[in-house]
Each structure stands twice: as C-alpha cells, then as structure tokens.
Design goal:
Length: about 230
DNA sequence: ACCCAGGTGGCCC
DNA sequence: GGGCCACATGGG
C-alpha cells in the first residue's frame, strides 16, 4: 500500500492531468470572493452568479457597500442564491463586523496566524468550517485545506478500506468528520497555498461531473485509483 | 414531481 | 455527541 503522501499526490496529479488548472476562486476581487463564499453555502454556483451579478449591478459588491446596505435590499438582490433572508443578514453582519471592529482592514486580518484568523471567523454566525477555510485560503492566501461534500464523497470512495480520514464515534462507528479530513490533507501534503487552492478546485470540478449518484467511475479521471461504489 | 447544490445553526434527547 | 430540521432558489 502506498503512503498517504504519495496517494494524495497521485490523486492530485490524475485530476490535474484531466482538468488542468482551475484558476480559482471564481471572483475578481477579494471582497467578491468573501461574498461568494457565503452565498455558495449549499447552493449551486450558477445561482450564486446571478446573485453576484445583481449585487454588482446595484454597486453592492464590496465589503464596505454590503456593510452599509439595507438587509431587505440585500435579500432582494441575492434571492437567486437561495436562503436569501438568512444570507442577507449574515452578509451584513459579517462585513459590518469587520467595518466596525477593524475598519475593514482585511490585509491585517489575514496577516494573523492561520489558527487565530480561523477561530475568529468561526466565531461569527453563519461562518462554519468550510466557509472559513474558503475565505482563509482563497481570500487570505493562508495555508488551510477546504473540505466539502465532494471531498467527503470522492475520498470515501477512493479508500473506503482505509478510512484514514474518518473518525470513530463513541459507539465505534465510522463517521465523516470535517476536521479529521482537513488534518489528513494538511498532514500529508506539503504546506503550499497554491497546491491547496488547486486541489480543492479540482475536487469540485471532478465532483460536479463524477462520483455523484453514479455507482462507479466509468471514464473517470481517477480510474485505477478509485475503489468503486460507495 | 421529485432530487440535488462548493453549509450552518438550533433544538432535542 | 448524534439525529433531525429549517432555510429557498433554479436546473436536471
């Protein structure tokens, strides 16, 4: 059995060879990346694009503008992204917090040690581990790894026999666990923001087209690595 | 008419 | 800690 380090790079190489560089995050500015990270929670990116276009048309695609915007206005504009009432409140709270507490200085925020910045993001309502890691990696260029539903699904299928990235519950059952997955990647990959960026983007691209409900990976970029159906 | 999408938080036991 | 549930639009 190959080592975890080699295994992870083997998967990465196969995906990169198949899909090429993804040029993530899809957004022109850091503010837009942060906004998109909240809008895309459990939502198809195509819907997020519509919401972002609306915000842009209203001149509300910057942190400062969102912080000062009316929640009802935000909700109306981001409607296509779903959960628009929740997300409108959370967007305004998120950027309002930074504007009020830190004068909107994201450079300083992302200059903090990764673990410090991460804990501060997680303390905010509506920012869970995936959103926090997306912000840290793609908006802050800090070396954290983003785990999402695709990552769980793809890697469980790849190595269901090993389960190195699952944890045991007190009852002894194997369970998906965000932090266990994340630590697996951080521990077994070189600390490289560019690599973490590309790896997650590749997993999303692969997940969108494969390993979804299909029972097997026929014609899959990971053929030969994949362990078969879940 | 379903089912799913680059999650999160609240509530119950 | 684990199991449900609400949140909501748009595309297949």
């Amino acid at each position: 059995m190959i080592s975890d380090k080699k295994f992870l790079m083997q998967v990465y190489d196969a995906l990169f060879k198949r899909y090429g560089p993804r040029h993530w995050w899809p957004g022109d500015t850091r503010d837009e990346i942060l906004i998109g990270a909240i809008l895309t929670q459990n939502t198809a990116w195509t819907n997020v694009e519509k919401a972002i276009a609306n915000l842009k048309g209203a001149g509300l695609l910057t942190a400062k503008a969102v912080a000062g915007a009316d929640v009802g206005t935000l909700a109306r504009l981001i409607r296509p992204a779903g959960y628009f009432n929740q997300k409108a409140v959370r967007l305004k709270e998120f950027f309002g917090h930074f504007e009020a507490q830190r004068n909107g200085d994201f450079d300083a925020f992302f200059s903090q040690p990764l673990d410090v910045a991460r804990a501060r993001l997680l303390a905010l309502c509506g920012i869970g581990p995936e959103t926090a890691d997306s912000m840290l990696l793609y908006a802050g260029n800090l070396p954290t790894f983003v785990i999402d539903a695709y990552t769980f699904r793809i890697f469980k299928r790849l190595r269901l026999d090993k389960r190195a990235y699952q944890r045991r519950t007190p009852k002894g059952l194997w369970k998906d666990d965000y932090e266990t997955f994340r630590q697996y990647f951080l521990k077994n990959l070189p600390e490289d923001v560019r690599l973490y960026n590309e790896y997650h983007a590749l997993l999303v691209e692969h997940g969108k087209t494969h390993c979804r409900s299909k029972p097997a990976c026929e014609g899959c970029a990971l053929a030969g690595i994949c362990g078969g159906p879940l």
